[in-house]
Structures are given as structure tokens and as C-alpha cells.
Amino acid sequence: MTRHPHGRRGILAVLALLLTATALALGPTATGAVPEPAWWEPAARPSPDSAIGVTGEPFRGTDAQGRVRGFVDAHNHIMSNEAFGGRLICGKPFSEQGVADALKDCPEHYPDGSLAVFDFITKGGDGRHDPDGWPTFADWPAHDSLTHQQNYYAWIERAWRGGQRVLVNDLVTNGVICSVYFFKDRGCDEMTSIRLQARKTYEMQAYVDRMHGGPGRGWFRIVTDSAQAREVIRQGKLAVVLGVETSEPFGCKQVLDVAQCDRGDIDRGLDELHALGVRSMFLCHKFDNALCGVRFDSGALGTAINVGQFLSTGTFWQTGKCTGPQQDNPIGSAAAPGAEAKLPPGVSVPTYAADARCNTRGLTELGEYALRGMMRRGMMLEIDHMSVKAAGRALDVLDAASYPGVLSSHSWMDLDWTERVYRLGGFIAQYMHGAEAFGAEARRTDALRERYGVGYGYGTDMNGVGGWPAPRGADTPNPVRYPFRSADGGSVLDRQTTGLRTWDVNTDGAAHHGLVPDWLEDVRTVAGQDVVDDLFRGAESYLRTWGASERHTAADDLAAGAGATASSSEWWNPFTRYAPGNAVDGDPGTRWASEWSDDQWLRIDLGRVRSVARVTLDWEAAHAAAYRVELSTDGTRWRTAWSTTAGDGGLDTARFAATEARYVRVVGVRRATSWGYSLREVGVHDR
Fold this sequence. Notes:
Blueprint: H1 7-26, E1 54-55, E2 71-76, H2 99-102, H3 117-123, H4 153-161, E3 164-173, H5 175-180, H6 190-211, E4 220-222, H7 226-234, E5 238-246, E6 254-255, E7 258-259, H8 263-276, E8 278-282, H9 299-313, E9 319-320, H10 337-340, E10 358-359, H11 365-376, E11 380-382, H12 388-400, E12 406-408, H13 418-424, E13 427-431, H14 435-444, H15 446-452, E14 457-459, E15 484-485, E16 492-493, E17 496-498, E18 501-503, H16 505-508, H17 516-527, H18 529-536, H19 538-551, E19 563-566, E20 592-593, E21 600-619, E22 624-632, E23 639-644, E24 651-671, E25 678-685
């Protein structure tokens, strides 16, 4: 059969016309184009999934003065389901298999929750609950359900849409809890868990990114410096900061008071954490370790944790009388039979004197080394959970270096430290208490925030086994009225629904992280707009502390190697010299010591006239109760730059207006002990 030479071209022309017509019929037209989703809406949210319950564009940018706006959750645990052996917190913050896989209970909780052992230990009862999560959520998440996921990604998204702009994800675990808990699917090494949680946080970022069209497109942004955080917030997104809260960082536990780590372990650990993106951390948590002593827990929980302290370290907590106004929490004395059964035969939890409220263990030499290592890396120290003895020394070290990087993120420090933290340039957040209690504490410290020009934060401690604000009731005279506007006024929030369950903060309390905006509205209703305004300035204050830590440079020590003379030197030991030069040799292992009488002095010659604004004094046990710092340009005429009659030893910092001086003299007026005055190191600085 012979084909017509033009037949093939004719068929192709017809096909082209048909394809063009089909494309025009199926594709968008100029008048019927499918709009691109708004930048805050995902292009491909999983289906089914949780509703968000928020309408309106999230606010972007800064105010007219260039300050970021928004709330800061300074203490959260997004990935703690991966901690404690992997089966203590049930459910996940995200899953590639979808919401039904993410929000399901631990297998041992089926069919009725009777094996929810940790619930039984922490809140009594028998732990029974309806284990079904998606789609019914009959019993969890709830404000008093301590072992179920509260940080599903869509709930965090709602908090972001409601005004939260910084979230600190503390990577958390505890090897002892892991080892004694009945159910686990992995090992208990704390650093292994920290690495996994960091990786999972980055995977969650990628998960959100894919919904929004690719890398960098999502609202969940892990940041590693304050400038990056500011840029993320300028774009209207959530800046996520990694922290660490664990009991044995770098393997630094202690057994029978013997450290199980050294300086090399600390350096390697800090380098690794910094490379993971960690920018804040606790040096100790719940149990004393090789770095510091802890602030006690109270009640039956305190007894249980003291048992854990023994199992971890071989010793129970040890207490003594406090030397200042600050005190640790009272040690729990209530029985905790489930925990006490773990003790060896014949061993029991000791009793403690009511007037001995302070942990005898403070910041150890290794702990101070770790703190200084954090400072060199621009990291921020969390002082919550530190004993007052440890926190006091840590604040002394920070103060001596004028280092601002100190945080109290969830109401676990002695409140008497508040002004000292603000004076350093640090940041404070309050635990997510009920609206009335939260407002009362916010008002107690309002004048200090006003004086130092700082905002406020909250620490939700979600997934942290802490308990959260209970409902005030449907019949309260001043309920949260839905829908309501976000603090910035740009978004509208209605009740939040996931599956078949809809939550209402009036009747459910703060059941999960998605109800943070509802809780904030409750705070506004109960405590007032001014408290919420302070909280809305929290992100800026947190970033100021972080940025100042990054920019910090150590001031030169003008006294290093300088000439030093003294009124006297202790001489009775022929094998040790206590010469004046020991106080300026840079070695804290040597010291100057005077004779055993009140009126003694140490004089330092800076070599030439310099500007002097700060003197640091590291006292040995034989310290001054009253002393003064004097300055002179010629060594003859002296003037007092600073003095105290309440010296308590340790590391003191004397600050005063910058003054020209060649000579610095420390004059002891009254001794605190029967010995003389003894100084390990004296530093002199121009700022």
C-alpha cells in the first residue's frame, strides 16, 4: 500500500490541535488561574491531619525601632519521645506515615492504660486511660497526662501562628530513669539519645519544608546564631534553638564522689554539641554529677529522685545550712514506695534537718572548666536545677567576666537571683503556670523588668513530665471567648480540632502546645494586657542575651604578671610561699596569704597609668568580711573606688566608674575567719 506524501504531516497537525485544545481545557486560564497558596499555608499538607484553627497571615518583621516581636517558649522538649529508652513519652511530633502513626499510644498502654507505670508513679491512681489517640483522643493529650505527646508539629504550628517566634528545644534524657523503667526499645546512654534527638529535630524541619515546597520554605527553622534567628523572625517564621538538659552531659557522672570524666571529655563534648547546633545547656539536672550539685525536688517525687541519685552516684543528697538568703527546695520526705523498692536491701533514704536546706555540692572544678568552655563558644548557661551553691559560683564566674549568657527558663532557680541575672544581661522565663499564678509572679518582678528594660518569657516544658495549667471551668466569670485575636491583632484563633476532638482551654486547660495561644489569651483575661505585652517583648530580650554572648570578648587582665607588694605574707610553712606575686601569676593553684590580723593590704603596680573599671578577687577560704578597693596614680594618694562590709568569699567583682590609676590596692578591714586574708587571683580590667 502506498501512502500519500502529505498524509503523515496532516495527522500530526490534527494531533497537535487536539493536544492544544486539551491543554487549554485542562490547564489554568488567565481568568480561572489556581492561586498559589499563601506563604504560610503548606502546598501539600498530609491528609488526614490536624486542623490548625487559625486564620490570617502571621505577622512578619520588626517594629519601628528594629526590635523583633513575639513570644518565646524558652523551655520545651519536642523530641523527648526518643529519650528515656524510647517508650516513656508516647507518640511522635511528626511521622512520614501521617498523623495516625504519630499520635498513637505506647503498645503497653493497650487496652486500658493499666501498664502506664510512669503515670502511676508520678500522679497516683492506677494509670488507666483510653489509649486511643487519633482520631478520638478521649483521654490524651491532657494537662495532667504526663506521658503522651504534646508537641505534634501542627500544634506547634498553631502556637507559631498565634505569635510565638522563638522556641528552645531542649534535648533531654536521663540514663537512670531509662535503666529502671520497665519498657524500652533502645540503650540508655545519654549522649546517644541527645544526638538522636538533634537529628530528629532537623528531620522535622525537612518534613515541614517539604510541605511548603522544598528546603528553606517551611516555617520551622533551626537557627544557630542570633542574627539568623532575627532574619527568620523578620520573615514571620519560628526560630528554633537547640539546648541540652540532661543529667550526665559528656558522660560526666560521679560515682562515690569520683568524677567519671575529665577536661578532654568536656572539650570534645562541647565541640560536638556546638557542631550539632546546641547553643544553651544545663550542666546538671536532677542528680549531682561531676560538674555540679542540683537543686532538690520536693514531695514524693523528691524521694524518688533521691533514690535515683543513689542509684546513679552511690550517694544520697547531702545538705547543710545555707550561707546566704538563697535556699534549695525542701527535699522530698514523702514515701515513694515504687522507687524505694529499687534500693539495695538495708539501704533507705535518709532524713534531713529542716534548717539545712542547701546542697553541700556546688560547682566543681570540672564544672567551672565546662562553664568557661561554654563562654569561649558563645553558649548560654541554664542555671535552673543548679544548687544555690553551684548557681552562686556560676554567677560569680559570669560576673567576673562580664558575660551575659545566663538563662532561667522555667522557674527552677531561687527567686533571689532574679536581679543578678538581669544585671548580667541574662534572660528569665516563668514556668507555664495557670493564668492567675503566672500573672502574680509576673507582677512580682515587673519593676525589675522595667528597670532593666527587658521582656519576659514562658517555659512550657511540654513533654517534660511536669504538669500544665488546669482548666478554670466553663462557668468561670471571665472565660476565654472564642474566637479571639492573636496578641499582634492580625490572626483569629478558634477552638483547635484534631481528628474528632476539639479542645477548649476553659474546660481542657493547656493540654498540648497548640493551646499556648489560648493560654496566653487566658493570661490576658485574668492577669491583664500588660503581662502579655511583656511576654510579647520576650523574643527580643532572649535574642539580646544570645547576641551579647556571641559578641563577648574577654577583657585583658591588666594585673597579669604585674608587680605586687603586701603589708605582710604568711610565713609559717617553709615549703610553701604565700608571696604577693602569687595573686597575679594567673595560677589559681597559688595564693597570697597575709598574717593573721585585720589591717592588711595587697598592692598591685600596673606599670603605668591605665583606665580601671573592674577588679575581680578570687578568695580562698580565708576571706574578708569587710574590705575596700583603692586606686592611685602615684602610690601615695589613694581614693576608695569600691567597698563592702558583707564579703562572703568566693569570686567577687568590684565595679565602678572607669578611673585613671597605676596602682590598685585591696585593703582588708575585717577578717571573716581567724586566719588572715588569702587571695588566689586578683584581676584588673578596663571594662
